[in-house]
Amino acid sequence: MDKQIHVVDETEELSQNHLDLVQSVLETAYEVRDVNPESEVSVTIVTDEEIHQLNRDYRGIDRPTDVLSFALNEGEDEGPHFEDGEGVPELLGDIIISVQKAREQAEEYGHTFERELGFLAVHGFLHLIGFDHQSDEEEKEMLAVQEEILNEHDLKK
Prior knowledge:
The chain has 157 residues and is of the alpha/beta class. 46% of the residues lie in helices and 17% in strands.
């Protein structure tokens, strides 16, 4: 069964290839993390102004950010990782990506916009399934999984 991934570009700045890339890297993330393919995730590409408002309203941080994840299963009695795909909720949640931040960061880090867009999509997805980067160990694990997924799409640093 096809993964339930919905990608919407509210900015109308991305090409169909960019939207397909987001879809594809998330399909790989589902497979690599063995997430139930019936689980649904939505990705919305927005402006800095829109993500700034969301960041302020939902996180109390009054500035734009690159990616936000809104997990629909937060607070449920799930483990931090879905290794075997069991118990994954039908609706994983929403990923919001700032197209401007993605462009700025691609330039800042010296890699392609496509790599940054893929990175942000995968990063947001991993947060939805329980990954975090509060400690060095968690960050190292999360970065390793992100790189594994991005490397499958030749989106290397």
